[in-house]
Amino acid sequence: MGKSRTLIIGSTFVVLGSMCYYISFFSPYWLVSEERSDNPFQRIGLWEACLKNFVDPKDYVSKLYNGCWWIFWPEYIEIRYWLNPSWFVALQVLASFNFVILTIGMLIVTGLACHCCSRDNDTNILRGLCFVFISFLLSTIEAILFGLGSIDRTWMPKIDFNTLAWGYWLHVIGGFCTFISAVALFCNWFSRRYEELDDKDGSGSGSGHSGSY
Questions:
Q1: What pLDDT was estimated at residue 212?
Q2: Which of 89, 97, 154, 185 has its CA 20 to 30 A from that of 107?
Q3: Which SS3 state, helix, strand or coil, does residue 144 take?
């Protein structure tokens, strides 16, 4: 079976969605503070946080935190309870799982579109569709989790001066692309199933009505 328009659309958007997701996954710009706010919080992504003259209210030593560090770096061990709350840990786990799911789905779909690595049949189309759609659902949950967490007054200080940055919105765009890809792949799979069923019905009716035309 040759390439169909829906398969090309599905593969194009899953690649675009994957690129957006990968960039946002490693981006430290999910939430940023306005410069005029003089906020001790500067910016944060899934794996990196930047602070400026931040002092933990519960720290009697009043240690200053400056610079950008990996969230799990020993430098942040004393404030990890605040920097990395339970909902943020759940977000990191979901994002990591989604990274794998989306990669598998992209490889399956692009393999089908390029006629390599994946056999072009209904089963593989459905398999790719499932991976891409699951990725879309996970991306939606991640976007909601972080969006709600960004306005939590017990998390980052001066939330009125904090804004969702390009890393977060790139994640949202990536999720939207995977949704379009999933719809296109579903249309492709449905049309294939319909044609197969129509061929079966046609062959059956043809044998029963031979010579009628």
A1: 34
A2: 89
A3: helix
CA distances from 1 to 94, 123, 131, 179 (A): 36, 14, 22, 25
Please, is 5 exposed, middle or buried when counting C-beta atoms within 10 Å of its C-beta (0-12, 13-18, 19+)? exposed
- The per-residue pLDDT for range 115-133, each reduced to its tens digit, is 775 566 678 889 999 999 9
Of the candidates 79, 55, 54, the one whose C-alpha atom is nearest the C-alpha of residue 67 is 54
- Domain spans of the chain, in order of start: 5-29+84-201
pTM of the model: 0.85
Rg (CA), the chain: 24
Q: What is the pLDDT of residues 137-184, one digit of tens each?
A: 999 999 999 999 999 888 988 888 899 999 999 999 999 999 999 999
Any idea which residue has 């200080």 for tokens? 157
Give the residue from 172, 177, 179 showing the smallest Cα distance to 30.
172
